[in-house]
Design goal:
- By secondary structure, the chain is mainly β.
- It has one domain.
- Helices cover 11% and strands 47% of the residues.
- The protein has one helix and 13 strands.
- The strands form three sheets. Strands 1, 2, 3, 4, 7, 8 and 9 form a seven-stranded antiparallel β-sheet that branches. A four-stranded antiparallel β-sheet has the order 10-13-12-11, with no helix packed on it. A two-stranded antiparallel ribbon has the order 5-6.
- The radius of gyration is 18 Å and the shape is globular.
- 22% of the residues are buried.
């Protein structure tokens, strides 16, 4: 009887793990200066937010990813002090999105304080393939961002790249 109970609990637990294969990730980049950039986030399924039907102008933070800066970073004329920032995206038009940072940690559906938002110089595209889960990374920029470090966010068919340094 105990064996059957243990087997049942194991199978139930295994099914839960298979049904929800989402996990936390941390991505870190070390830049000259020395500046350490780090992002902590969860692998959110792409279908969790309908980017096509998302409201215009609202700060959306898929499970509240956090960007941590070890030192102040300059983006053009904007200085971003060291600290933690919630990463979010804002829909400006049907295929026009911008990445934004909110100082501190917001919960998943907590409303951002708009005057505190730092809007990042962002390129948005829907032609970079499909990502079934949220992927955030640091990469070297291309095109307009050539020679710069960019923060990338790929979720479903939405791909955003924002200049970091």
């Amino acid at each position: 009887m105990n064996r059957l109970l243990l087997l049942g609990l194991f199978l139930t637990g295994s099914a839960a793990v298979v049904d929800h294969p989402h996990f936390g990730k941390t991505v870190t980049a070390n830049l000259p200066g020395p500046v350490e950039l780090s992002v902590r986030y969860s692998t959110v399924p792409a279908h969790e937010l309908d980017t096509e039907g998302a409201p215009l102008g609202k700060f959306l933070n898929p499970r509240a990813p956090i960007l941590q800066l070890s030192q102040t970073v300059r983006l053009g004329s904007t200085e971003i002090p060291s600290g933690n920032y919630t990463i979010g995206l804002i829909k400006k038009g049907s295929d026009d999105w911008i990445l934004a940072l909110h100082p501190g940690r917001l919960r998943q559906k907590e409303v951002a304080v708009t005057p505190n938002l730092i809007l990042l110089n962002t390129l948005s595209s829907r032609s970079s393939g499909r990502s079934d889960h949220l992927v955030i990374d640091f990469n070297l920029g291309t095109g307009r961002f050539e020679g710069k470090v960019v923060l990338t966010l790929h979720w479903g068919t939405l791909f955003l790249a924002a200049e970091i340094q």
